Amino acid sequence: MKVVDGQRGGYRPSTTPPAAPAALRRGPLLVTAVFAALGGAVIPAAALPALWRVWQLYAMLFGAVAAVGIVAAVAVLGWPTRKTARFGALAAAGALVLWVISRPLGLLTRFDPWQPADTVAGFTDYVAAGLQVIAVLGFLFVARRRAHPWPSAARRATAWVVLFPVLVAVLATGVAGTVAAGDSSTGPTASTLLDAGPGTVEYCRPDGIPLAMDVHRRTAGGPPAPVVLLLHGGGLVLGNRKPAGPGALLAGSRFGPLRDELTARGFAVAVIDFRLVPAAPWPAPLADARCAVRFLKANAAALDVDPARIAVAGTGTGGTLASLLGVARGQDTGQYGGQDSTVRAVAALSAPAAFDLAGLDPLTRASVLMALGRSPSALSAASPLTHAGPGAPPFLLGNGGRKSAEFAARLRAAGVPVTEGAVSERAVADFFAAAVG
Q1: Are residues 257 and 328 in the same domain?
Q2: DSSP bridge pairs for 398
């Protein structure tokens, strides 16, 4: 062994400290990926309280994945290196895998854990998944980019100008998805106990998903009251039963004045949430509306309503569902099997009577495709016009609606009493008083 200056030669570790990981610039691509990851993680986190009420195990799983995603996004933004960018991509990919397992593949069989996030918009989980895709691609691209000198001011400005619209869209989508998912966690919790009297109750639990109903009455006691079931609009994709909040905004016309007019006339009023598409494929909304009618009949004594005097009203596609309750005869399946879902009268306001794709504006066409697809048989089955025939209850077709005039003509030809024209809340209440009261 060679001796140098009286010392045996050998390996001498370097005293130079290891180089720190090369920092990445907080450019528009990295910032966009970070906010996409945050949005994709915060959306399911906003629905955790509602998911916890259904099953705690799923809530803990989704909460852990969301927490990892949030920590990873903060780490990338605070310490932007290739290592943290890969960590962010891995966390976003893990959340995306959980979505694929639970929604497209349906391997979490107890129930669909995304349903609490989809109670205002039936595609909220798809928004979260889309944001995670953007995050994965953005983080991977940033992590693989070669380091280069600090670019010129013109180059930085150009990058921000080009990607700024994408960043704004990501931010807006994340905020909207979080607000929509969080709306399921606000308001009174539905109770399965009916002996406490009218209020918010759980009326059905299809596929393990609890659905809420608000029951309104002016006074307690007295003879059993006739009841009107109200179904909100929103294209079968948007909205909920609440009188305020994002669901109320997306559902379009609200029921407050009509509810007050009906309760002043001695009616009980039931307003429900139903599963939205595409989170729950058609005919889930119609099945939920039928279940609500059967619930009212099965629990009439506890709710102090008359099971023989149940009517239904709806606006927009809620009116379409109401019309289908009146004309689409079919075997009732699910809860409360000893009851049927027949009703005494129907009021459909501004409700389409047929679903077809010809002549629709792009937004309406997209809504129909999202809700029902493009199959002619599916579109026909969801159209009240297809089912018009004898034996239907009296109808009020108010304020127009796609092919409502043709629907009214077919009902009249089948001997069904039909009232048409522009109507007010008082006119609707008068119709129900004559038909049911």
Answers
A1: yes
A2: 349, 421
